[in-house]
């Protein structure tokens, strides 16, 4: 499965395929990217290149062999192209003539073998030391649930329409509205791994907003919730308490609809930041 001639193992095919798929799934689940780097050395063996790489990789990075003896590869989890370039800059400060290709991965259908062939071909055709490949696939849309909790039906509808009309490239919104906290919690709407934006009045029938906030933040996967509280009480103490309880934003009623839309766009923008 792996050669371990130093402190960091070098994985061989076909095992690297399974590792690639697992790391890709973990990165996409966390709404992040991962990077694959292939390095080809002109005047040294792959084993010598791997020895250099061991001094640079993190414990979470994965070294692997390809089907060429003069190549080694690296998988950088939760990383992007800029991190990969910095990694190669450190590598190239060492002795040795090397070329490399970088591929940032953010689509579930990206295949290890097809990516490797593209990178090997790019290295062979390249005049420069580093080639950054296009992904060939657009980032898949992120499905985001939106819940609006307010006792006033007309106000719920206005906020729902305002959010639905926002320009949110890369994000597909699924919007539901609720008139009270208990109906929301019992609806099953919160049960999924999707990111979930909750726009919630602090005073609600049956179960008030602060109680709902506490229940959401007590869930084991509470990190998927982004919570914007609304209130008619312009109290510094109330706002402080809401933030300390886990609110991500606060609006005092009545508020300007454009201000509300700006808050929503800012919160949604965090998803792929």
Automatic annotation (TrEMBL):
Residues 145-268 form the Response regulatory domain. Pfam families: Response_reg. It comes from Bhargavaea beijingensis. The keyword Transcription regulation applies. InterPro entries: CheY-like_superfamily, Sig_transdc_resp-reg_receiver, WalR-like. The keyword DNA-binding applies. This is Response regulator. Keywords: DNA-binding, Phosphoprotein, Transcription, Transcription regulation, Two-component regulatory system. It comes from the Bacteria.
């Amino acid at each position: 499965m792996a050669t371990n001639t130093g402190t960091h193992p070098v994985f061989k095919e076909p095992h690297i395929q399974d590792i690639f798929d697992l790391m890709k799934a973990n990165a996409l689940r966390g709404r992040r990217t991962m990077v694959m780097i292939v390095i080809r050395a002109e005047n040294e063996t792959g084993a010598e290149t791997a020895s250099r790489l061991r001094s640079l990789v993190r414990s979470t990075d994965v070294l692997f062999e390809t089907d060429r003896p003069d190549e080694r590869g690296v998988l950088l989890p939760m990383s992007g192209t800029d991190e990969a370039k910095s990694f190669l800059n450190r590598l190239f400060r060492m002795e040795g003539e090397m070329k490399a290709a970088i591929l940032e991965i953010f689509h579930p259908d990206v295949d290890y073998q097809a990516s490797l062939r593209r990178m090997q071909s790019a290295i062979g055709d390249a005049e420069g030391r580093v080639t950054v490949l296009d992904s060939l696939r657009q980032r898949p849309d992120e499905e985001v649930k939106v819940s609006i909790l307010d006792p006033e039906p007309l106000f719920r509808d206005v906020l729902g329409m305002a959010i639905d009309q926002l320009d949110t490239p890369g994000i597909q919104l699924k919007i539901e509205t609720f008139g009270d906290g208990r109906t929301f919690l019992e609806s099953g709407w919160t049960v999924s791994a999707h990111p979930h934006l909750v726009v919630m009045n602090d005073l609600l029938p049956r179960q008030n907003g602060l109680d709902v906030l506490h229940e959401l933040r007590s869930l084991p996967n509470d990190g998927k919730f982004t919570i914007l509280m609304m209130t008619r009480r312009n109290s510094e103490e109330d706002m402080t308490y809401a933030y300390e309880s886990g609110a991500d934003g606060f609006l005092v009623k009545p508020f300007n609809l454009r201000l509300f839309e700006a808050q929503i766009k800012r919160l949604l923008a965090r998803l792929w930041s």
